[in-house]
């Protein structure tokens, strides 16, 4: 086969692959867009102020998601306090301090494997550890720590990848003026990689908001008509942590509860909850894009 024929064959294969990829992309996007439009058409009429400030009810026209969205925010708050500091610190240590030997490679391999484990496995592990072993019960703290373990590998991996993008000449310039390793990390590495780290953190939290299986495993309730204990108290020390031990529900479980009922009105409520959940996820992902853009624009090398 001549060189010209070989080039023409490669170009034809490239064109066929690009066309096939475009068709798959259009088909997938069309299916997704159709489902989203159908959900909006079904649930949008139900979204109003009362839907956000009302508790679940056996009467669909009076039912709301107050306890569900408050529970989701409380659990994500606990997840953030557990996973973000530990994940970022672990990523920094593995990338900057850990020796590059077989032990660090084994740790890295296990972290990558943990990031791909199904979420139900984390639920089973948390049920055995937090609920039965540590006697923490079916509480917000248990749920938050479970989701914290779930998103921890994601934060570690994204932190390491963000740090790896920093050019070596920035480190060398810092060391050349007498900075220590920690000063280099604190004043140069972290500011330059902060956008990528925060992007991974926000994406990890957006995944945590939509998780259902591990929360059901550790005892999330499908129907709650009350809120957790207020974190602010009127008596000293004016801060209460009782809410961490309270039972909870979240929006995905509330959706499952409503969609499993035969009445069509409850299905409308489930679609409205799906709109709220999808909107929260989109807002988080848009925030991740803006954070990354801002820090890439601010710190250039």
Task: Provide structural commentary.
The chain has two domains: 3-45; 49-298, MetI-like fold (Orthogonal Bundle), CATH 1.10.3720. The longest helix has 41 residues, at 3-43. The protein has eleven helices and no strands. The chain is globular, with a radius of gyration of 24 Å. Helices cover 73% and strands 0% of the residues. With 301 residues, it is an all-alpha fold.
Put the structure in a nutshell.
With 301 residues, the chain is mainly α.
Number of strands: 0
Estimated radius of gyration: 24 Å
Could you say which overall geometry the principal axes of the C-alpha atoms support? globular
- Count of spatially separate domains: 2
Q: Please give the CATH architecture of the largest domain.
A: Orthogonal Bundle
Structural class: mainly alpha
Oligomer: single chain
Give the CATH level 1 class of the largest domain: Mainly Alpha
- Average per-residue pLDDT, rounded, comes to 86
Proportion of strand residues: under 5%
Intertermini distance: 47 Å
Largest sheet: none
Low-pLDDT parts are none
**Level of helix content?**
over 70%
CATH structural fold name of the largest domain: MetI-like fold
